[in-house]
Amino acid sequence: MSEEETGNIEDIEGLWLGTLQVQAGMELRLLFNISTMSDGSVNATMDSLDQEVSGIPVESVNYKDRNLRLGVKSVGGVFEGKLKGDGKTLEGEWKQLGSTFPLVLSRIEEKPDTRRAQDPVKPYPYDEEEVFYENTEAGVTLAGTLTLPRSEEPFPAVILITGSGAQNRDEEIMGHRPFLVLSDYLTRRGIAVLRIDDRGVGGSTGSFSQATTEDFAGDVLAGIEYLKSREEIDPSRIGLIGHSEGGLIAPIVAVKSPDVAFIVLMAGPGIPGEEILYLQSDLISRVEGVDNETIARNYAFMKSVYSVAKEEQNDTIAAEKLRKLIMDEVANMSEEEKQKSGYSEANLDVRVNAQVQTLISPWMRFFLTYDPKPTLMQVKCPVLAINGEKDLQVPPEENLKAIEEALKAGGNEDYTVKELPGLNHLFQTAQTGSPSEYATIEETISPTALEVIGDWISEHTQEK
Q: How far apart are CA 74 and CA 81, in angstroms?
């Protein structure tokens, strides 16, 4: 329920849509729904359309003299605006965690369709099933979706492995659901697909924050055992498709399990995590117009915090050192730099503590030091490694080269390495490859990338 001050609330009832310019090239659409309840009280909710989050409660609605204030406590946000003479526009600002952004809300008649062009539409020409299985060693229950073709059984199958960060089974990011699109495409081609919520996400239990890449490999091994228990699946044709960090996980699993028939690495790392993070920061900064001096300063700062994260094993001491380094860095920033980075007096402690916890997390400590090459050298099953030419997060030149060298050195006799022109880290057709473009691109996965993956898997799963 919301609070209301005096004013004609009918003026602001209805749907209000606005676009937030978060940073250069990155936009988020916010939709407010304001209505009057039967008892006369006001109810309001907010949807972040591009993040696919809906029904966020607006705890306070204050309207007086054509001035509207909407308070959204759960996200620490406030909209303050004035209703223009036409009654169709609210001109104002969105304030969140110490940052202020201009925001104009326009009255609309119906909620926009947030479905992306490639999102599949039901009814599907295949069967879809909600599944649960155990990683008994870790005490984790994993929840996912299994899609099964309606052609002749038993089917070849793949497990989709998400990238870094807490991801759901569709690998939802910036309003896109790449694993939903990929699983639909492959299932229509006669391949069963299992996609799962990361541990601690959605229907899966366990702690995401305490898990490392190796722990996630254990979850994938449990998925293989589950697929082997299904009579519709051919146990000799079970493969893995890993995106980004999933491309680190797939080789680990392939080395541990003789049941892996093939692996596909989509923007999979071939070099240690620390090297990737330096390259990533440099490339994204350059494409967004950051000057050389700032890039050099960022590199020196990253080097100092990663050094502490790697070398200081005591979490308490590491946290103290990291906090001092970050606070010193913020103190040296200009006001403009602070605003761009999202720092303010109001949120400084919260932001710094969150950064410190990320840096000393088990996942980050593992990622910084893990070199994928020795594992790749042990992979004997067929491998397809693909990268987008414009990938700024896992740059293709350095990573594809390292993957190919490791597979060759290990004596793998069946591997294909491809750089796909014009595609970014999500395999979207992109202008610059910057992550700030992801939400604004309508395409979820390039049809070229889908075809390369589908053709290669079909070729490697044909019954002899």
A: 20
Burial of 231 (0-12, 13-18, 19+ CB in 10 A): exposed
Phi, psi of 228 (to 5 degrees): -65, -25
pTM of the full structure = 0.81
From residue 258, alpha-carbon distances to 167, 237, 240, 251, 254 in Å are 27, 11, 13, 12, 7
Q: Name the band, by pLDDT with cuts 50, 70 and 90, for residue 57.
A: confident
Q: Delineate the domains of the chain, giving CATH numbers in brackets.
A: 9-108 (2.40.128.120), 127-271+371-461 (3.40.50.1820), 274-333+341-366 (no CATH)
Q: What is the pLDDT of residues 147-167, one digit of tens each?
A: 999 998 999 999 999 999 888
User: pLDDT at position 380, please?
Assistant: 97
Which two structure tokens, joined as six digits, stand for 182? 């990929």
pLDDT digits (tens, 9 = 90+) for 219-251: 999 999 999 999 999 999 999 999 999 999 999
> How far apart, in Å, are the Cα atoms of 379 and each of 296, 371, 389, 457?
37, 14, 25, 17
Which tens digit of pLDDT belongs to each residue from 99-133?
Answer: 788 899 999 998 877 788 999 999 999 999 999 99
Q: Helix, strand, coil: what percent of the chain each, to 5?
A: 35, 30, 35
Query: Would you give the DSSP letter of residue 144?
Result: E
Environment class of 43 (CB within 10 Å of its CB; exposed 0-12, middle 13-18, buried 19+)? middle
Local structure of 378: helix, strand or coil: coil
Q: How do residues 389-432 score in pLDDT, each as one tens digit?
A: 999 999 999 999 999 999 999 999 999 999 999 999 999 999 99
Question: Rounded to a whole number, what is the distance in angstroms from the first to the last CA of the chain?
Answer: 64
Given pLDDT bands bounded at 50, 70 and 90, which one contains residue 86? confident
Per-residue DSSP letters for 35-68? Answer: EE-TTS-EEEEEEEGGGTEEEEE--EEEEETTEE
**CA 200 to CA 206: how far, in whole Å?**
5
Strand partners of residue 420: 388
Instruction: Give me the residues paired with residue 42 across strands.
Output: 2, 36
Peptide linkage before 120 cis (omega within 30 of 0): no
How high is the pLDDT of residue 341? 75
Q: Are 191 and 441 in contact (CB under 8 A)?
A: no
Q: Is 299 helix (H, G, I), strand (E, B) or coil?
A: helix
